[in-house]
Structures
1.
Amino acid sequence: MGKIHLEKVNKCFGDIEVIPSIDLEIEDGEFVVFVGPSGCGKSTLLRLIAGLEDLTSGKIFINGQDVSNSAPAKRQLAMVFQSYALYPHMTVYKNIAFPLKMAGIDKSEIDKKVKAAAKVLNLTDYLERTPGQLSGGQRQRVAIGRAIVRQPSAFLFDEPLSNLDAALRVNMRVEITDLHKQLKRTMIYVTHDQVEAMTMADRIVVLQAGNVEQFGTPLDIYNNPINKFVAGFIGSPKMNFISVHDAKQLGAFEIGIRPEHMNISKTEGRWRGVVTVAEHLGSDTFLHVKTEGIGTIVTRGDGELNINYGDIVYVTPNLNKIYRFNEKGLSF
Amino acid sequence: MARKITIQHQLGFTLLAWFLGLLMFFPIFWMILTSFKTEIDAIASPPLVVFSVTLENYIEVLSRSNYLKFFSNSVIIAGGSTLLALVVAIPSAWAMAFSPTRHTKNVLMWMLSTKMMPPVGVLVPIYLSLKYMGLLDTRFGLTIIMMLINLPIIIWMLYTYFKEIPSEILEASRMDGAKLWQEIIFVLLPMALPGIASTMLLNIILAWNEAFWTLNLTAANAATLTAFIASYSSPEGLFWAKLSAASTMAIAPILILGWFSQKQLVTGLTFGAVK
């Protein structure tokens, strides 16, 4: 139904090579998240799959069919844009009906499908409004409605939640995950937010400078990052990297320790330091500790630790959870 | 710091605006006034503000020439050239706004540069071309010329409007399965409608008032209202009142159209300047 295969996909804008060469195999029904820092080529890759950008070289197959030179409409994909990209001059009803109208489906059938989609997305009361009269979350739902109504073989999401406020983002994240479970269709989701990536994905593609750094399940990527970039990108707060003599002692050029894999004590430990920032979230406490010798490290403790700015603390890493990297930044 | 706008300032600006407005309107006002005077009153010195109103100039002008024919020529040529220009300009502005290349800016500048050349420079080649094609003094020939003359401005205006439309919306329609013509008809045009309307109005006005080509390329059959005025100005230049009546009749339709669409026109002319 929605198997997507990329073969040596390459994209240049003029003289600038944005995507050198990507091979990727996305299984039918899978929820894949493209994640990476801004400018890493994740949106470009999505637009190449959508057909909104032309390939420079390489091939794209959808369900075994070569669509490298097909128009977007021919690819049986639906896309949700960051800016929603609703048709401002049409009502919600007409927005959702638009892909069906383009497909030449008859009016009574369109009516049935639009109403069904509106019901799923809680939009029934808003069908006669125009996008300008809706809130951000409602607009995003209309954009999703427009995508699901046609039953495409795969859905593409281009940072769909980045214009929403934090609370709404969490809600929509759950809604999209639920939708994936209901529809069982392939979804490709682009985001720079690694929390979205971790919580929503079946598998994550971590991209940097147009290259796939790692492709795997969220926990696999979290537990076994292939290199320093992936290790630093996935996980919040960021992993701490230490390259001084402590690293050598532990048999690596550089070591990485996640903030949650450290023990904090007021009396004793491996590294002594001063708290320069203390973030009390209630559920967690994040401490920025300025140590002698290894610089500032960030730690994360469960619950409230009652440690404040200026306090002296001792930090001890959990040696079983240390990541070791060689000179090239590859983990081993 | 926000500038303080005092009552004096506001009053000053209002007075200045009225003064400039009246200054620009005065020739039109005087022309309309003169058209209702007798020939003797029209040339009186000092000019008469109070006079006995007469319609004899209008009656004379209407009985002497076929106003309706000139009028219909103007409507057909101004309207026809505008519609034809839109048919050409919409796809080209669409292409330049949404799929620009390295040369798009150059193409636009080149188009605009054609407006900088004095028209008389190409009068002979165009005159001869039309002559050989048998299009001299035809409405069709003049419609084509008028369309070509105003095309650069129309493309520029539409390009500016289209630039304001987020390309993601057009991409969304492509994803939704719209073919190129459906994308333009169902998505682009409705969103650009205000812009297209003001472009159309402006172009109708430009074509309506155009005199150089009309006078040179038409004689009896395709002559427009500008030729109608001209026919009163040369042999009968001294008959101010009749000339005024003819001019008033020539500008009245466009004045009325402009009056009713002034809101559209103002947005059209200042579009993109303030946002």
Note: Chain B has one domain: 57-269.
2.
Amino acid sequence: MAYDKFTILTSTAVPLPLENVDTDQIIPARFLKATERKGFGDNLFRDWRYNGDDSPKESFVLNNPIYSGKILVGGKNFGSGSSREHAAWAIYDYGFRCVVSSFFADIFRNNCLNVGVLPVQVSPEFSEQIFNAIYDNPKTEIEVNLSNQTISILSTGAQESFEINSYKKENMLNGFDDIDYLQSMKEDIESFANGLLL
Amino acid sequence: MSKTLFDKVWDSHVVRKIEGGPDVFFIDRHFIHEVTSPVAFLGLKSRGLTVLYPERTFATADHNTPTINQHLPVEDPLSANQLKALEDNSKEYGISHWGLGNKKNGIVHVVGPENGITFPGATIVCGDSHTSTHGAFGAIAFGIGTSEVEMVLSTQCIMQPKPKKMRININGQLGKGVTPKDVALYIISKLTTSGATGYFVEYAGDVFENMTMEGRMTVCNLSIEMGARGGMIAPDETTFAYLKDKPLSLKGDAWDTAVTHWKTLKTDANATFDKELTFLASDIEPMITYGTNPGMGMGISKQIPNAEAVEGGVSSYKKSLDYMGYQENDSMIGKKIDYVFLGSCTNGRIEDFRAFASIVKGKKKAAHVTAWLVPGSHEVEDKIKEEGLLDIIMEAGFSLRQPGCSACLAMNDDKIPAGKYAVSTSNRNFEGRQGPGSRTLLASPLVAAAAAITGVVTDPRTLL
């Protein structure tokens, strides 16, 4: 599915400094019953965000009007567990375009890259600096520059570079996805398949 | 150059290497189910693409299916809609479909191996993280997202950077009451849920060599719970014996040719790994989890660790114990439980039901415990009956449900109520995993059976 190009994102950020946030928390399984990709943002972090009677839990950060923005800053080992791409859809659909963490689970990271959410892995120290900056001033802006592969805290000037492979980077800069690439090499794939025993 | 088992299988499936990018990786076998495939088919249609090799994809309904009255229409309209989409899409594109009511229907990671779809040296994916199960056969098998499902449908390839390699060695004799599930939970408790992220794991040593295929599947299934994309075990005579004469296994000369090749699928003596870990079989006892991720597990006779003794954030750890209603230094033995779930792609195979029956035989289910026993497939269900296990469990006050993923992820009606404790043979104890507010203790079928009989967490070794 096509998504918007990602170049430079400057935004305030939402802090969620918990470790091991699994995809069952990002979107519980009972909300995976759609056959179309829409509306998942409403159930993002459903059980942390709402009580059983659907009233908002005031203590949860998404219900705190002080924090907003297109960047979600999570704790270590973000996105572990189930492979559900719905977790990445929910994050995108809610309005986030970038997730920052000191460590991502593999499948979640892949899924993000495939749906137009940029996963930015930073050092534990820089992650701490971002949390502190947001808690000092929720209006603090974070700038994520994909071309330069840098993330900056604008209020403090602190900056760190992040890794992304050059192929995925080009895709995100241009809003392309893997299927476009794979379609272009179908002949190679077919001749490969013809050589297989099983 | 010396290669690992993983190198051999991976390298033989790379269609193209991209400079500074991922490999274009060919997929031999693709499983789909009703939850993570509908949007992939929509994507296919909106781009005007078709399925390149429908004979390489296999559909089964399992995630949201009911486990009682499967002959009746599915009541939940959203689930029914997903099941219909799977059926319609399979039909439209010529994909084999084992829907509800089909004798072959069951949990994707149970029916795949049972039917010989899985084979050594294969590359296997599914939009489900527990696809790692199939690594038990010496396959590279891992979970993918829905965008990747669309890629595999349309081109039989995905784009993946080659993961790093880890080997986990365990030698020695497992003690009484220690099962493959305990081995896996033990490893995860040592590595944490992110300890193997970025790696593909090979399990080696006589503990794994001595396991049945069912046991190896349980271990490989749980690889994802330590963050690994997958885990694998070199194929051997146990593997070949399991696969021989399965409905979709090769036959005759083709089988012999394949076995000759499969025998070469082992790590060369001088091959190196990015990381190597070794544990002792004798250090492993029956395990149980006390927290909200599978890494929060311990030997059943131990006490819940102090936050300070645990790697990672103290606040996340305390939040987890609060959710469970437990305290640091608590013993798990004797904790009251409300539900028992035997089943899932982790422990829903015949061997798991044999283990459960071995404990409950001649005893009675604790009155306050609700137990859901859910076979992984109709074949498992049939064997339970043939082997007389059904009589044993029914005499002990249990009943058998119909195959499906059930309470492992509670997408159907099999939900553990808020605040209730479930000893579960499944794979995840995340908050709300088995129903909003549910509290999960992951354990082996033996521990689950012991809890079902006594109504509290019990060391199964006292009942064996």
Note: The helical segments of chain A are 23-26, 46-49, 86-94, 106-115, 124-136, 166-174, 178-183, 186-194.
